[in-house]
Specification:
225 residues; alpha/beta; eight-stranded parallel β-barrel
Length: 225
């Protein structure tokens, strides 16, 4: 059985500090790379968010955009893409980082669950998506998997109560103290992205956000630790 119990997503005094696509602000290292994830942890973050897509040969590869180097990921074999895979990330980091695993497309659900069973995260994780059908599919396959409901518009945000997700992952401009209180009152947790201003980081911490996701990983740690 897959261990799905998460490390507690913290009290208002100690939000999880997560890098966005790793240490994204460090321009000398590509985002969504193993090196960027490693740097994020060296900066002192608890973990990181990263993006997963499906290649033509059915590999779960790590990339934010639908294309890379002029190649459409869904139409290209993983050997040509030269991208890390979800298995690579879990193999290297499942023992020492909280993982926010964002599924960018439908069809990844079984791949993600198989990888998680093979390398169960020990420091907590969440499988997140903007796509309600993806969260519903993961929940149908395994209702014990912790899910994250991603939203960046008011229209999306209005649906958070109906989602099976235990965590609401809201864009910073949508996140108010009232929303934090409502999410907590519903027995769910709230994670905020992408927060790159120290003042806003401290504000979300004061409001009781359970996790803060940032490109500026050094600033995040310096401001809140």
């Amino acid at each position: 059985m897959l261990r799905t119990e998460n490390r507690e997503l913290t009290t208002p005094m100690t939000p999880l500090l997560l890098g966005h696509r790793g240490a994204r602000a460090s321009r000398h290292i590509p985002e969504n790379s193993l090196a960027s994830f490693e740097l994020c942890l060296r900066h002192g973050c608890d973990g990181f968010e990263f993006d997963v897509r499906l290649s033509a040969d059915g590999s779960a590869v790590i990339c934010h955009d639908a294309s890379i180097g002029g190649m459409k990921i869904e139409k290209t074999d993983s050997r040509r893409l030269l991208l890390p895979t979800l298995e690579d990330v879990l193999r290297q980091f499942s023992q020492r980082a909280f993982l926010d695993i964002e599924l960018k497309v439908s069809g990844l659900e079984r791949h993600a669950l198989a990888a998680l069973h093979h390398h169960p995260p020990q420091e907590g994780f969440v499988v997140s998506s903007f796509l309600p059908e993806v969260l519903a599919a993961v929940h149908a396959f395994d209702a014990t998997i912790p899910l994250g409901f991603l939203c960046e518009t008011q229209g999306q945000l209005r649906e958070w109560r109906e989602s099976p997700a235990q965590s609401v992952i809201s864009q910073a401009d949508l996140t108010t103290r009232e929303l934090v209180e409502q999410v907590h009152a519903a027995g769910k947790r709230i994670m905020v992205w992408t927060v790159n201003c120290a003042e806003r980081m401290r504000e979300f911490k004061e409001w009781g956000a359970d996790a803060i996701i940032s490109d500026e990983t050094e600033l995040l740690v310096r401001s809140l630790r």
